[in-house]
Amino acid sequence: MQFSPSRGLPRLDPLSRPFSLACGGPAKSTIKMKTFSVNKVFPFWHKVSEGTLTTRFAAAVALLVVVTAALISIASIVFQQQSVENIISEREATAVAQIAHEIDNNLMLRRDALIRSASDIASVVPHDRQHYQEWLNRHHMMKSFFSNLVVIDRRGHQIANLSDPTSGEVDLSDREYFRQTLRTNAAIISAPLQSAISGRPVIVLTAPIRNNNGELVAILAGTIDLARDSFIRDLSDVKIGKSGYYFIVSRQGCT
């Protein structure tokens, strides 16, 4: 929150004021005003002003000492506050960097597991729906890494699904992770998106399935459900102080 210095109140024209004050009385009456002396109100000033040069000098020195001490105290408080803020900022930056590193490691671990699985599934001949589905059924332990595993053919159609073998074909050809994998013939990690299969927020990891000639014949895709229990979901349970929290922002600025 930022505070801006208040401006002085605008001076109102006498004719535009919402109200005015007036004194009424007989025309012949006179107004008597009492005067007061500064020396009576501030007797110390009277003593200093009428004192010797030494007294005046001592008073000036005392005033200078008081003002200097006040300025030093204010500067010390500001410096200490700034130091505390810098320490907290550095600690938070270190904590964020460590958590980001852990997330990277978790994603790389899952990507490498997916690449090895895609290399293993490439031995399945022929490359058709039935054999892909049988391979997924035999490797259900992969669900410890992913919420679901699917196989996508070169047209962009899902042809095998570990969680729902009877789901049938789902057109994923418009998905950026499919297009990027097909274009680069390499494993990728997608930005957070809404799954076309489950409708849930997910991250998709892909790995190309290649034939003996190194040509891409299908894509093995693993999804990580961001709304369910996962290493990323656990991040929302971590608190900073009383009300602080962590959140992840994609390159598109989405949280």
TrEMBL record:
Keywords: Cell membrane, Membrane, Transmembrane, Transmembrane helix. One of its GO terms (cellular component) is plasma membrane. SUPFAM superfamilies: Sensory domain-like (SSF103190). Gene3D superfamilies: PAS domain (3.30.450.20). Its main location: membrane. It comes from the Bacteria. Residues 84-253 form the Cache domain. The keyword Repressor does not apply. CDD domains: PDC1_DGC_like. It is found in: Cell membrane. The keyword Membrane applies. It is a multi-pass membrane protein. The chain crosses the membrane at residues 57-79. This is Cache domain-containing protein. It comes from Massilia cavernae.
